Amino acid sequence: MPLQDINHLTALITGTSGNLGINIAKRLIKEVPHDKKLTIIVTSRTLANANQTIQQLNSYNLEEVKRSAILDFDYSLMDFTDMVSILAAVYELQKNHKCIDLLYLNAAQGVYKGIDWWGATVECCTNPIKGVTYPTYKIQEVGVKSKDDLGLVFQANVFGPYYFIHKLIQYNMFGNSKDPRIIWISSVMSKPSYLSMDDLELLKSNESYEGSKRLIDLIHLATYKQLSQKYHIKQYLTHPGIVTSFSFFKFLNPITYYGMLFLFYLARLLGSPWHNIHGWIAANAPIYVSLYADQEFDKQNVKYGSASRWNGKEYLKTDEVDSTGENDVLTFFQSLTKQWDEKLKNQIVNTRTL
Ligand SMILES: NC(=O)c1ccc[n+]([C@@H]2O[C@H](COP(=O)([O-])OP(=O)(O)OC[C@H]3O[C@@H](n4cnc5c(N)ncnc54)[C@H](OP(=O)(O)O)[C@@H]3O)[C@@H](O)[C@H]2O)c1
């Protein structure tokens, strides 16, 4: 982005209260030139989390960064497992903001039951790097649906955010931006084998979280060209490597938490590029594609990963993404979008002239 040409940057980060989300916000506060006005829109499912996140970001600026230009915050309460809440959030956003320049699709959830401790011990003892990079011992529930009667993880992590983009475009929220960018957050765990084309809502899968990340990869590949040609929006695919996740703490006690951290550092020392551990380093790839990527030279058909060296020095690592199935996924998403447009058509009337 030619940052020098922009006077006011508005960024929306979904799931800002999480470790990655808050660090994306902090890096924006630090790295967007300090003489530019910056607006950060925090999203959460709860007002308490939104308020707390804004307080933390505000203190970070006042105590450590001290931007000279205006830094302001807004919040948007939205739950991606509730289509009406997505629509309501977009409706409020278009009333209060001229445009969104940067949209980080960071929020995610899994339906975890717990950890198979015996499996975890065996995996981590026999191959510690694999055990803490591609764990198979997190137990996920199968067949969980949202109250909208969609696969819950499918809706929370992929279809909800996809529909959010669709509605933001309908309300012309990118039209007034000089260089709008959408940044999807995928995962290192998104191999094609996690997704069955017969189960796109991930209802039969016991790896629905990983399947949702594979869907993100495919929906990105299936849409980025059209977004660019039709709406001048640049869309990028990123992943944060491995980072301590606030939402997973509930399954750990102090012993297992520090044991996990120890294995993360060990994996990094042994050469794993993905054990970033800290949210700040994990935010490197999303920040790179949103603030620094060159529209001409930085490819959009690859996945930008946040990586670090043994000593925690950050760098970027890009990977090719297997595109098998992208058209099937796009057709499915387009058809579901039509159905939801129809279902929601009387919920909120758009009074703006598009
Ligand atoms: N942690 C890792 O090692 C890792 C590895 C690969 C990829 N990732 C990806 O990186 C991103 C951030 O990870 P993280 O570990 O920082 O996550 P996290 O701490 O679990 O935070 C995710 C945030 O998403 C929000 N959220 C959850 N369900 C939602 C829903 N249904 N609707 C709206 N918001 C929802 C939550 O905010 P509220 O509770 O405030 O609503 C939560 O703070 C995710 O996309 C994750 O899949 C993480």
Topology (elements, then pairings):
Blueprint (H helix, E strand, L loop, with lengths): L7 E6 L5 H13 L5 E8 L2 H19 L5 E7 L5 H14 L5 E4 L6 E4 L1 H10 L1 H6 L4 E3 L11 H19 L10 E5 L22 H24 L2 E6 L2 E2 L10 H16 L5 E3 L1 H4 L1 H9 L9 E7 L5 E7 L5 H18 L11
Parallel strand pairs: 1-2, 1-4, 2-3, 4-7, 7-8, 8-11, 9-10
Antiparallel strand pairs: 5-6, 11-12
The structure holds NADP nicotinamide-adenine-dinucleotide phosphate.
GO molecular function: 3-beta-hydroxysteroid 3-dehydrogenase (NADP+) activity
Organism: Pichia californica
Protein name: 3beta-hydroxysteroid 3-dehydrogenase
Structure description:
Keywords: Lipid biosynthesis, Lipid metabolism, NADP, Oxidoreductase, Steroid biosynthesis. GO terms for molecular function: 3-beta-hydroxysteroid 3-dehydrogenase (NADP+) activity. Pfam families: adh_short. The relative contact order is 0.13. The chain is 43% helix and 18% strand. It has 354 residues and is an alpha/beta fold. It has helices spanning 19-31, 47-65, 83-96, 117-126, 128-133, 152-170, 208-231, 254-269, 279-282, 284-292, 326-343, and strands at 8-13, 37-44, 71-77, 102-105, 112-115, 138-140, 181-185, 234-239, 242-243, 275-277, 302-308, 314-320. The longest helix is centred in the middle third of the chain and has 24 residues, at 208-231. The protein is globular and about 55 Å long. It has a single domain (3-343), classed as NAD(P)-binding Rossmann-like Domain (Rossmann fold, 3-Layer(aba) Sandwich). The strands form 3 sheets. Strands 3-2-1-4-7-8-11-12 form an 8-stranded mixed β-sheet, with helices on both faces. A two-stranded antiparallel sheet has the order 5-6. The chain starts with 7 loop residues before the first strand and ends in an 11-residue tail after the last helix. α1 (19-31) packs parallel to α2 (47-65) and α6 runs parallel beside α7. The mean pLDDT is 93.
